[in-house]
Structure formats: C-alpha cells, structure tokens
Amino acid sequence: MFDPPKDSLKEEAFAKINLGLWVLGKRKDGYHEMVTFMHEIDLKDDLWMWRSETLSFLVEGMEIEHDNTVTRTVRKLQEITSFSKGAKILLTKRIPPRSGLGGGSSDAAAAIRGFLKIWNLSLDRERIFDVASQIGSDVPFFLEGGFCLSRGRGERIEKIDFSLREDFLVLLVFPGIGLLTSEVYSWMGSSYSNLPNVDKVVEAFRTDDWEFLRGYLKNDLEKPVFERYPNLRYVKEVLLSEGALISLMSGSGSTIFAIFDGSFSQIEQLKRKIGKGFSFILTRFKRRNG
User: Fold this and answer.
1) Distances (CA, A) of 218 to 21, 170, 187, 246
2) I need a surface site. Which of 114, 122, 123, 156 has the fewest CB within 10 A?
3) Which one of 46, 107, 138, 220 is the catalytic residue?
4) Fold (topology level) of 168-283
5) Do domains 9-159 and 168-283 have the same CATH topology?
6) What pLDDT shows up at residue 289?
7) Residue ranges per domain, the chain?
8) pLDDT 10s digits, 223-244
9) Is 45 considered catalytic here?
10) What is the dotted CATH code of the domain comprising 9-159?
11) 134-192 pLDDT per residue, tens
C-alpha cells in the first residue's frame, strides 16, 4: 500500500443506491429523461491529492482505466480555469466499477472538491455543477450528497431534508460483472413510465411506510437487464423472500440491493441460496452531515 505524504488532502467518495428509477422517455439530445431517488451509503473510495506541477494518478484496490473520471475531471478543471498546474492523486477503490453504485461519479466529485481546495481555486456553484454534469450524469448528485431526488438525465438535483434511518442495513449483492450505462439504456426499447407521484414517495420515506414503498418503487432498467441476466432477478427474489423491506437493482446495474430493518444474520444462508460468483457487502445509509 502506498502512503500519501502528510501534506496531502483526503476526500471521501461515497457510493449510492437508487431507491426507484423511472425512465420517462428519450430526449432529443439522445439521453433519457428519468426520475430517481438516490441516497449515499457508507461504502466509499478514498482519494488523496497533493500539489504537483503535472498530473499523475495511482490506484490501489481495483484496476480501472488510466483515462478515468478522476483524471478527466482534473483536466476539465485545468481547462476552464486556465490553470496549468496539476496534482498527484492516489485513489483507493472499494466500490466496484460499473456496478450501479456510482463509484466513478463519486470519485469525480471528490476530485472536483480536492483540486479546488489544494490550489485555493474559486469557481461559482453554477460552473462547478456544469463541470460535474459534463463528466457524468450522477456527478452533480455526489457534489450535493445525502438523499436527493434527481431529474432529467441526472443533472437536476433536489435535496431531501432528511436521511433514511441509520439502523437500516443495506445489503449489496454484486455479480462480479459490470454493465455499461449507455448499453443498458439502449436495451430499453420504447416502453416508458409515467411520472411517479414524487410527493407521495417522499412522504412514505419520511413516515417509514415500507408497505407502500415495496409496492410502488421500481427500476425500469431491471426488465431489460433481467432478460439478459436472469440470475439477477433470482437474487432479487431471494432477498425479498428473506424479509427485505425492498430490493431493487441500483442504477443501471449490476448490483442488487436490499434494505433490512434491524439485525441481519442470514448472510451465510443467503450466500448458499444465491450461489457462487457474487460478492456481498453489508453497509448502512450515510449519516446526514450537520
């Protein structure tokens, strides 16, 4: 393990899950219009950054492409600020790539925060969020953090004024394969959802009405993914049969998550039922800042 120098700055890049995702149609710019609720969870990557004349990048924990969201973010910031200096960056990866948990987008948001801080650069909120949306649809959410409603292709963020309970357990089941978001959306066809009743969903989250949420929440991307990967449908069915409050695919996959209320001791039983080839991560909702 590489030890960053004492003068490095550390930024935490938390993962997220999508608590429902409705695809409303395809836009003229080629993106899909959607509505989704996203909540940060405690699973995270760590990004260390310190001043350097040039840009260099090192990753540990998992392999990712050298041209990644972190390096693209720093280059974009250099471009719009006309700032030539770089940074040395160490990224410790724990969030599986292409898993629907937002790891690359969260890393990009951490890079924005870190690069502006180490060089004391000033950008107004609008420009920062413009850079974020150019890097990835979920990056604006990770700049906001917490629990949010996201609209459009993900760039329109509305903060929700509470977080889900910290005593809930969130079980992530990752099949060991990643899915490309653009490819998953290309599988959608032309069957789209109507706009969900956002106010009713928010109130159900606020009042812990999980009976309503279990029947109402859905992820429109599950159907095309489950048609191609029926083992993921099976994972969801097992999680629900074991008492999950809800179980959904996160984002465009491939992770299936489940929320459990209180203690959870069935992990070994679940592993036997679901079978080999899957990784299991038990985490919680991220504590609300402030």
Assistant:
1) 6, 17, 17, 10
2) 122
3) 138
4) Alpha-Beta Plaits (3.30.70)
5) no
6) 64
7) 9-159, 168-283
8) 999 999 999 999 999 999 999 9
9) no
10) 3.30.230.10
11) 999 999 999 999 999 999 998 899 999 999 999 999 999 999 999 999 999 999 988 89
Q: Which residue has the higher pLDDT, 3 or 191?
A: 191
CA gap 116, 5 in Å, rounded:
19
Query: What span, in angstroms and rounded, lies between the C-alpha atoms of 39 and 163?
Result: 8
Pairing of strands 86-92, 56-60: parallel
Sign of the alpha-carbon dihedral angle for 261, 265, 269, 275: positive
Specify whether the CB–CB gap between 87 and 52 falls below 8 A. Answer: yes
Q: Which amino acid is at 3?
A: D
**16: annotated active-site residue:** yes
First-to-final CA distance of the chain: 33
Whether the predicted pLDDT of 78 surpasses 50: yes
Residue 50 one-letter amino acid:
W
Q: What is the pLDDT of residues 271-281, one digit of tens each?
A: 889 999 999 99
Residue 211 confidence class, pLDDT cut points 50, 70, 90: very high
Which one of the listed residues 16, 44, 236, 286 is annotated catalytic?
16
